[in-house]
Amino acid sequence: MTDETTGRRFWLRRRSPHNTDIGVQVIALRARCANDALNAFGTSYIFRLRGRRLKRKVQWITYIGFVVPMIVGLLVLGYGHVKSLPVIIGIAVGIGILQAVVSLWAIIGGWVDGASYAATSAPANDLIATKFRGLAESPPEDFRDFQHQYELVKTEDKARREQDFQQGLKDAEMRMGMRAALRQYQRACAGCGETPTDMKATGCGVCGDFHRFWKS
What is the pTM of this model? Predict the structure, then answer.
């Protein structure tokens, strides 16, 4: 037999304004977690792409710096003095000068340091995105615990972002990162309203217009 008084009190507790407010706050905080996960994943994508490009550039410079003198040396050792040797040496010198100029530009442009930073930032942002995503999908039952865990990840995210923006992120790169994140989490763009299924640049000012940085 059900106690009508007890049942009514229980119903009132569940429907109390305090519980309703908490529910609204949980929904809002979960939405913030989802948005923060989106931003962190987008930043991770940017640095993954940067890292690959800078690494290839550094590898090519290093390769040319070794292979050109090595080829000339092997030709001299293998064939001695040949009629075309002055021409070969002239070409090698020209390539060497070009390689030296590009190497100097790489040092000034921070290609090596940039590649190293990207290799660190990409997985760090990816981990932050995973943490935010976990909180958005499976938040703790206790709202205070939820807030506390969110603030911990948010502090980590803020510290990482402060370092990332010192790397000179471009607007086109950020639009590219946004498209990658929208595609990853299957969310509609706030600008064009479309849910991306690929990384082809569009004319959208939120998730497109990054043709210079596009890579499938």
Answer: 0.75
